[in-house]
Structure formats: structure tokens, C-alpha cells
User: What shape does this take?
Amino acid sequence: SSLTDSNVTISPACYATVTVENDGNGSASADKTSAAKGDTVTLTATPNTGYHFKEWQSSDVTVSGDAFTMPEKDVTVKAVFEENTYTVTFDANGGTVTPTSGTTVVGGKLSSLPVPTRSSYSFVGWYTAASGGTKITAEKVYTADTAIYAHWAGPLSFADLPTGVSDITVSEGD
Assistant: This one.
């Protein structure tokens, strides 16, 4: 219904509901829970630790710059988050390695660690520093782009063998 007084018509505002959802990897909200057609609704997305905001999804409106203009109907928008990924660079520290870097997968871990090679040396493991540092395993969780370093034992030389030893057998893992 409308009220008419001379040449002025006043119509009641039609408000529609704003519903904000998330994918479970963060939280999301709107500055209004209901709005009239033409109102600007501003959205906020906060990712959980280890995630970043990816996008807003909606079949009701187009979100631009974390805001949208309210249509004359209820609106549902969903915040979508992605897990952070990091690049781990493998420094062969005098040897060679392929690949030279890897990208973390679900849970911030690498799927595997490559095995580098270095002539006359034995690979000891991956460490957080070129000299010293902490030994790295495939279970390490990364929270930033990182370089890790190969450590080596050696060089191996027949000159290092005890007097009288002319034959040696080296088994894998020794």
C-alpha cells in the first residue's frame, strides 16, 4: 500500500535477506543481514590459519571488490578459501639434484624429497642450513617458501683405507 499526499507518493521499502556462507576453511560476514534494492552490501572474509581467501561465489549477484548491489530478492553468497602452498628449493650444496624445487601439497608437506648426487660423496640428508641446521624429513610442514640444503659425508678415497686393505664392498645404505 502507498500513502498519497498531493503529488508525493511514499511506498514502503522492500527488504530482502542477505545470507553469507563459507566452505569451512574460514569465516565470512556481510555488513547487513537485510537490504533494500540498490543498497551496497559489503562482505568480509577471514581465512583460517594455512588458508587464503580465493573468491566469492553466488548465483544471485556479482560481487566486485568485496561488495555488491542488492537486487529486489534474497541473496546468498559463499566465501571460498584455498590452502596455502609454498615452494621448497633444494640446494644440492656442491652436488646435483632434480628437481631443483617442489611445491607443498595438502597439509603443507612435500610429497617426497629428491635424492641428490655428488661424485665421491655420500648423501647424509636434507637440512635447514648449508652447514649445521636441523635435519629435514618428508613429514616437515612448511609455512613459507623455504630453501633446504644437502649435507654430504666424504670425499671417499682409497687413500683413506687402512694399510693392507685392497678390496671393499659398499652396500646401498652403508
Notes: The mean pLDDT is 89. The radius of gyration is 31 Å. DSSP finds no helices and 14 strands in the chain.
